[in-house]
Amino acid sequence: MTPAGSLLTADGLRKVYGPTTALDGADFSIHPGEIVAVMGPSGSGKSTLLHCLAGIVRPDAGEITYNGQRLTDMNDTALSALRRSEFGFVFQFGQLVPELTCVENVALPLRLNGAKRKDAERTALTWMERLEVDDVRDKRPGQASGGQGQRVAVARALVTSPRVLFADEPTGALDSLNGERVMELLTDAARSTNAAVVLVTHETRVAAYSDREIVVRDGKSRDMERLV
Amino acid sequence: MSTTRTKPAAPAGAVPHPGPTGPTGARAWLRDLAMGVRFAVGGGREGWVRTVLTAVGVGLGVALLLGAASVPDLLANRDARAAARNPADTMSAKTIERTDATILTVDAGTGFRDSEIGGRSVRADGDHPVRPPGVSELPKGGEMVVSPALRDLMNSSDGKLLKQRFDDYRIIGTIGEPGLISPKELYYYTGSDTLSKAQGAHRVEAFGYHEETEPLDPLLVVLVVLICVVLLTPVLIFIGTAVRFGGDRRDQRLAALRLVGADRRGVRRIAAGEALFGALLGLALGAVFFLGGRELVGVVDIWKVSAFPSDMVPMPGLTAVIVVAVPVSSVLVTLVSLRAVAIEPLGVVRSTTARRRRLWWRLLLPVAGLLVLLNQDQVTRTGGEDVQVYTIAAGATLTLVGLATLMPWLVEAAVAQLRGGPVPWQLATRRLQLSSGTAARAVSGITVAVAGAVALQMLFASMHDEFNTTTDQDPRRAQLNVSSPEASGPLAQRMIDDFRAAKGVKGVIGRVSSYVVRPGEMKSGDDMRPTTELSVGTCATLRELARVGPCKDGDAFVVHSGDRELDQWVDRTARPGEQVELNSESWGDDASEARGKHRPWTLPKSARTITSRPDPAGDRYSGIFVTPGAIDVAKLADASTQALVQIDPKVTDAEEYVRNAATHIDPLIRVYTIRMVERDKQYASVQKGLQAGAIATMMLIAASMLVSTLEQLRERKRLLAALTAFGTRRSSMAWSMLWQTAVPVVLGLGLAISGGLALGFVMCRMVDKTVSDWLVFLPLCAAGAALVAAVTLLSLPALWRMMRPDGLRTE
Amino acid sequence: MVCIVLRMSIGHTLLGLLESGPRHGYDLKRAFDEKFGHDKPLHYGQVYSTMSRLLKNGLVEVDGIEAGEGPERKRYAITEAGITDVQRWLATPEKPEPYLQSTLYTKVVLALLTHRDAADILDTQRAEHLRLMRILTDRKRRGDLADQLICDHALFHLEADLRWLELTSARLGKLAKEVLPG
Q1: Which parts of chain A sit beneath pLDDT 70?
Q2: DSSP letter string over A82-139?
Q3: DSSP code of A56?
Q4: Which of residues 123-152 of C touch A (CB under 8 A)?
Q5: B559-568 mean pLDDT
Q6: Which partners does chain C have (≥3 C-beta pairs < 8 Å)?
């Protein structure tokens, strides 16, 4: 039951961590260029859904298809390669390498893909300009503000021109003004590259930047669009 | 301790704490220390792990220090026991009258494979003989007492040949502890019914002879001081590192204390209290490790070193210093390490704008050290001025410690310029740029150990170069040299026959030799009576000693060595057709010294003059060579018998068969091994010991590097999970871990080796020796590589675990 | 304001209450007061006029008249058209506006009482809120500072409503226990 034209779909995902059931038959689908907010109370399994969709965590049951490939059939090396080239990630915090400068952090995914340092940093800088953080290029993450750091993280997530951007509470550690700026820049950038965005958040004002909303409750997903 | 942090002003006391002021001064200290101890004990699993890590680290260090503190007593006790079993008065001119208590004794040591076996042959004069210490009953003829280790060796399957050597003797007891230097010493006393003064034995009425101790060789003092510096500095550095184990986590816990109202000074004192508890626990553990280790050296025998546990008693003064210094320094190290950290209620702020480390004062130490050494006059063994010794020791210590202080600067300066490179390399160098202190501190321990080991080995190598050169011996022609002080043709013949019958023997050259003189009145122009050596042997034997040409039994030869002066001297005695005196003492230099009957012998007129060649032992004989048919060997006065034995190198233990045969002929026969290179065993063991020490230090340092690496990994769980999410390969991270360890270690080794070579060169120059071995550091480089590999490999499982995506769902 | 909101939904509420079975007008008032009246009980006249409007629209019918002491007592029953009307009302999200809670609360309780899916009601409302928030967010991004400030004000209010919706969703089980007898 893959919706026509969708880029990434999941069907009947189940994932159990020890005694807790994180996902209990969750479904998901996203089209290219679409921004989908995944909401739900804490502990509902929304982060686990994101981890499964991104191929970071293997579901116990269910199927995930990306662009015609079944993620559940791929081995770790293939998944890592997929994440490096097709996906981008933004987390709440603790994702930037504290020793590297901001521009080096942004360039990191390109370099992991084998790009030359100069080229990687040049591309990184254009993304930093787009996210209005080129002024902290040579600072270390610890010397930049929280909002800047998060925009650097967004730049890093987008630098490989991923087809899907996974953002897990990207504004969770920011105040509303900074959070909204990050969301504006993130969604603008994603739309300009036609990247799909899976946006996990518990803030409705952040979710309002999405095109569509999924609510996860007790490990089950609910597509809110079908209700209206 | 390495002084690495050059962080500007710590905020301590800058702002007075506005909160309620509790007790001040000593009481505040006590209260906070006690609270720290409570945290160390009751801090949950986290706190315990930290405390145990610190305690084990400190304990290892303390055990080593206690061991070092026991060395003086250990040596003194060993010396005392060695002296106690020396026969008294053997060196004095005093003649000891034979009594009921006196005994005759002579040194009768032997060897077995790689081991030296000490021994004495004894013969009681009466019914109540004196006994050496540890011996309850003096062995009579055909009896022996042995040390427990020798008994075990003889009873083991390895020692079968050795048992055969002594199968004429019945073991009647073992030597007790007072009669042995170390528990694993191989020693014996054999009883004899025939021992006589003629065989070199002394009459003894008591044991216990303390040789006049010469003042310690100044060179040796330098070496001892250096060895102490080399081996103990890393231990101190290690203790310093161990106290800091888990420091980052602790800082976070302390931040929580700030939140509930502890002031800045308070949390420092609490941290000090935690460290203090770890150090005290470490002291206790150290005592346990030491006692355990002490028992261990009593039973195992590593590198031929063993010691009685009762000998290993740390000197009280040094023990007191250790007991006081370790806890105090743990507190000081903690306080110093917290200078660069501001623990605030909402978290820990590490000074990121740390000032660049300065080079000049760090260079000061090693440069000053080398200058001190270069300005020293050369030390000779005779001119031992105490002052000089201490300046040298100070110079060397300054150099070594200076290298350690140079280390943090070097790491910082070396990585500061690094840009780019592959991602793992970039991650590693960037990390080092941001916080090179921890790595540099740990590695500085290696630096001291390796630099010291390199310098000392160079010094030893050159000092023993003279012993280490070719001995002129030719082991291709014969491998064993057997000699007996007893002079007899039949003995020579028996040696030839018996050795030839021994397993693995290819050939035997037997020779009886004595000094002979020209008989008659001294001629004018002779300031001493012409003398030459007369050797008796078969044609085959003589061919090994000279280019004989045609030879048959009954022939005699005059042998020249090729040295004109010496040959002329030979010709004054060896005159074909003229008489030669076989009992040299019967003439003396003049009539007044003459003793005994003349035993003239005529050198046949047919004697040809031939040229000598070196014998397999490397000696050249000149003088008169005679075949047995031309002379009655029994007439030779004061002769000795020598046999050169060729053995088949493919037969294992051939040497031992020969020794056995020799012992059966006469227990006092000496067997020497001929080698191309006489490798000084002591030097070899010193070299081995130094390398082992340096490698042990490296392992200690590796352990502390591993702990800090694991800590760092644990701290970065989230980051590693995030990196995994965007597809970072595990291998990339593994390589960055490798580089992160390898860069400081390589820098440290480089610094240590260049510093060590410089120090070694200067010290060699000082003792007037040339450097003979520039490559002593190679094994240490290998050890360094192994260290890097080990630390990386051991941290990989943790890295894999951290790189699992579970790290993302910590919330 | 409260009264207006209430009046708008009293008809549906009474209809909903009738779903569980025919009742007298007085019973309806009592049930209403008990479940939704809180500090402001329903006036009997309100019940009467509402019921007569519903009767006229064919959403209820008179089930029977009980003669006895005092005024005559009509028993009302819901018609098929009435049930459909309640269903439509519950399924239609309210226009997001201030002081919406009473209506939504009423809807949720009625849904629980009539064994409909109360979570659906909340989710539908939630989706409607988010739809409006998206529009406002979009307008904010394009607009000038004044637009931004106005939109933000509305957004914050909507966000507060959404929080209430979320909280209520999480507490549906507890609410059901309180509302349903037994």
Answers
A1: 1-3, 226-228
A2: HHHHHEEEE-SSS-S-TTS-HHHHHHHHHHHTT--HHHHHHHHHHHHHHTT-GGGTTS
A3: S
A4: 123-124, 126-131, 133-134, 136-137, 141
A5: 85
A6: A
Contact B808 A157 (CB under 8 A): no
User: Among all residues of chain B, which has the CA nearest to that of A22?
Assistant: B809
Chain A residues within an 8 Å CB radius of B809:
17, 47-48, 51
Q: Do chains B and A touch (3 or more CB pairs under 8 A)?
A: yes
The answer to whether the CB atoms of A99 and B729 lie below 8 A apart is no
N-to-C CA span, chain B = 40
Classify the complex by whether its ipTM is higher than 0.85, answering yes or no.
no
How many structural domains compose chain A? 1
Question: By the CB < 8 Å criterion, does A184 face chain C?
Answer: yes
Instruction: Read off the pLDDT of each residue in B573-594 and give the average, rounded to a whole number.
Output: 76
Hey, are the CB atoms on A99 and B427 less than 8 Å from each other? yes
Q: Which of B449, B434, B453 is nearest to B701 (CA)?
A: B449
**What pLDDT score was predicted for residue B685?**
63
Mean pLDDT of chain B: 78
pLDDT in tens, B682-739: 566 666 767 777 777 777 778 878 888 887 887 788 888 888 887 888 888 889 888 8
In a domain, A125, yes or no: yes
Distance from CA of A208 to the nearest CA of C (A): 5
Candidates B712, B723, B802, B808, partner chain A, best to mutate (most A CBs within 10 A): B808
In a domain, A194, yes or no: yes
Is the CB of residue B82 less than 8 Å away from at least one CB of chain A?
A: no
Structural domain for A87, as ranges = 8-223
List, for residues B457-509, the tens digit of each pLDDT value. Answer: 887 777 665 544 445 555 566 677 787 766 666 677 777 788 888 888 877 87
**How many Å lie between the alpha carbon of C127 and the closest alpha carbon of chain A?**
6
**The one-letter amino acid at B451:** A
Farthest-apart Cα atoms in chain C, separation: 69
Do chains C and B touch, with touching meaning 3 or more CB–CB pairs less than 8 Å apart?
Answer: no
The answer to whether the beta carbons of residues C63 and C70 sit under 8 Å apart is no
Which position has the higher pLDDT, B197 or B20? B197
Q: Is residue A81 part of a domain?
A: yes
Reported as a pLDDT band with limits 50, 70 and 90, residue B16 is: very low
Q: Under a CB-based contact definition with an 8 Å cutoff, are residues B428 and B743 in contact?
A: yes
Q: HSE-up of B602 (CA within 13 Å, CB side)?
A: 5
Min mean pLDDT across B424-428, B430-434, B555-559, C3-7 is at C3-7
